[in-house]
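chain below, 349 aa
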Amino acid sequence: MLKTLQIGRYRGIESLELSGLQRLNLLVGPNGAGKTTVLESFVFLISGGQPELVPRLAAMRGLDLALDSPKSGRDLYWAPMFFNLDLSSLTRFAGVDGTGRELEVTMRIKQVDVRDVPIIDGRPDPFLLNAEGAQLVLRFSAPSIKNERRMILGEGAIRIDGASVRPGIPSALIAPHSHDPVDEAGDLARLQRTKQVSLVVEALQQIEPKIRGVEVGVAGGQPIIFCDLGLSELVPLSSLGGGTLRIMRLLLAISSAPNGVALIDEVETGLHHSAMSTAWAAIQTAAAEFNTQVVATTHSRECIQAAHRTLGDDGFQLIRIDQPEGKIRATEYTPQALSGALGFNMEVR
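prediction:
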């Protein structure tokens, strides 16, 4: 769990700080304000600055492209991550976790001289010798920890150098319209082993009362989630409605980050407004069960109202991200301010 998050010169955010983070946090704000960028910042910090995140996050933004040349990766993966596309600047993520531990990740572009290429078996490393001269360097620091990893772009390939050192904070990130059925089946299988599937089933029954149970099976050689509807055979969960699938995915994400952080972009996706309260009740229960901090974004007033109605004045932290006059800022609503704003139908999204 993180208490604070600081972001410096990442994508469209020159400088931003979030403080007073709670177990359940909801980010709101207009399109382009930087809500998804804030979620990505959490991921970089919590991961300890893993370069493998760079192509993954690019793919979630629709840049899942083949590296036909090193320059394509530099232009499409790297440049958009730096404020104003300034590859000479330093990007920084920092925060304090629940134990008071200070964490920091920095990211920069470093030019590497051919004289720095190491010798392997009496010859210069052939990949580095022919790779792009610029490298993406991520440094992670915490009490008694200093670590550096590098992403190197070669002809049609990416190489990551350096040991993977992490803060020990599990995390999960859900994009609005992407998911991995294999990972989800693995998450449910883990809940089966720990006998915690009932939490998922009870939440799903609020959307589809016919559901008696869920379990992992195999179809076409791949693990898949099936549900018991009281019929002669189990049916794939994917054959049910979008709301059922969405709540399942939210709960599996939270369960996959015990004692960590689950990050959910556009939490309302796939949910009818009438199911919002059910979703928030399930999120609250799962977050408490797995001791998981949740940071979600939304554009939906109904979603905010449902969170307030279900969780209460002080059951979550509402944070508005906006950019008045081009300067980004975060406004953290007190319980009293949020209650008053919703009561008078004021705009809080």
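The longest helix spans residues 242-255. The chain has a mean pLDDT of 89.
thats it, cya
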